[in-house]
Amino acid sequence: MDKKKKPAHTCAPETMMMGYGYNPWWSEGSVKPPLFLTSTFLFQSAEEGEDHFKVAYGQKKSSKPAGLIYSRVNNPELEILENRLAAWENAEDAAVFSSGMAAISTMSLAMCKPGDQVIFGIPVYGGTSYLFENILPEFGIECIPVESGENFVESVLELKKQKKLQNLKMIYFETPANPTIIMTDIEKVVTKLKKRLSTKKREVIIAVDNTFMGPVFQKVLPHGADFSVYSATKFLGGHSDLIAGAVLGRKDLMDMVKGYRTILGSMATPFVSWMLMRSLETLKVRMEQQARNAEVMAKWLCEQPEVNYVLHPSLDNTREAQKEICQKQCCGNGSLISFEVKGGKRRAFDILNNVEHCKLAVSLGGTETLIEHPRTMTHSDVSPALQDRAGITPGMIRISLGLENVDDIIHDLDQAMKKARKIVADKKAARAAKKKKK
Ligand SMILES: *Cc1c(COP(=O)(O)O)cnc(C)c1O
């Protein structure tokens, strides 16, 4: 499947998802790409086998991708899917992985060597935080947390001034960040940090986790980032029925990432890749409707007496500097909302224990509304010190809006909050009664 079918004119990505990179006449006229469940591929001759390996392992230059060899190295499903994913951000190349964490760890290991330094924005997803706080340091890679947001660049430059960044190799952040929805200006990071901190011998790599908004509401590569990283488990998959990840970027860097993927064995399977292709056909309509639902929900949450604050870029209370970043690099507000309730963890748990339609489960970006408690769930493997610095408070609840009628979801949260209120009132009454007895 090496020949990309060039469209007659440049189509929008949502149009390309219906056929790009696949010719039905390769497979009996099948409109959808068949599922190639094979581990290995036949060579026409020993010479052809030798040639495929040389191209795949970079020993021979070729303008075409390597011929099919073995499904850890390449597979038709992976190749069509990667061509389609790349189209969303106009990327030179894309690679799909067995999970978001497989994508992040493979990319990090391909870029960073012992002695190198990494700056990572906080907060980041719990697993990513664990990788930077605990695993990469075991390989001699120093990982330094810096608060994401409008002051990120200044904070990094301050470290530079203190001569603490002699070996900086990678800057990794999420925008918006999970779970505080805080945004960082990608273009500013590129012009103020990448350009200034790279040397002839050491190019500083900018890797942005684009899981929350991308690729429909935010494209990070056009702003100058080197890598756009995804947990494809989330919006790209979109139905909470698969685990996968993706990295998009420049061809020379992607060759290194794909080389590591081949050896670490962290690629996606053909079946998951096929499912992702199906999901990409509906990506735009799903994300747009979910974002509309989130806007209604965010407004409603603001009016609830037990809610301290609501985080969603559509809200008027969003800081001006944050709004500016959102307007500059996003064309939508996404469908993730975090909010803090009065009464901390206990009240948050009382609400979560009483939802009926919302699913009390981690993950996000699925067709169903998912609700969870970041501090004890998705971000429990972030050290408490970093949780506090990043603003992941005990009373914080994160909600990912699905495709239900949003009125039903509001009704559900309303009844859960009412039940939680009653639990508080009942406890208060019980305490008062006990006191009276004494
Ligand atoms: C879920 C998530 C990840 C990890 O992805 P997996 O597919 O679960 O391995 C990474 N980054 C963000 C922002 C996520 O939400």
Mind explaining what this structure looks like?
The chain has 438 residues and is an alpha/beta fold. The chain has 2 domains: 13-280, Aspartate Aminotransferase, domain 2; 283-429, Aspartate Aminotransferase, domain 1, CATH 3.90.1150.10. It has 14 helices and 12 strands. The protein has helices spanning 13-16, 46-56, 76-89, 100-111, 126-138, 152-161, 186-197, 251-264, 270-280, 283-302, 320-329, 344-352, 384-390, 406-437, and strands at 93-97, 117-122, 142-147, 168-174, 205-209, 227-231, 245-249, 307-311, 336-341, 359-360, 370-372, 396-400. Helix 7 links the parallel strand 4 (168-174) and strand 5 (205-209). Helix 3 (76-89) packs parallel to helix 9, helix 6 runs parallel beside helix 7 (186-197) and helix 12 crosses helix 14. The radius of gyration is 23 Å and the shape is globular. The structure holds pyridoxal-5'-phosphate (PLP).
Which range best describes the helical content: under 10%, 10-25%, 25-40%, 40-55%, 55-70% or over 70%? 40-55%
H/E element order? HHHEHEHEHEHEEEHHHEHEHEEHEH
Strand percent estimate: 5-15%
- Give the overall shape: globular
> Which value, in Å, is the CA radius of gyration?
23 Å
Quick one: CATH class of the largest domain?
Alpha Beta
Number of strands: 12
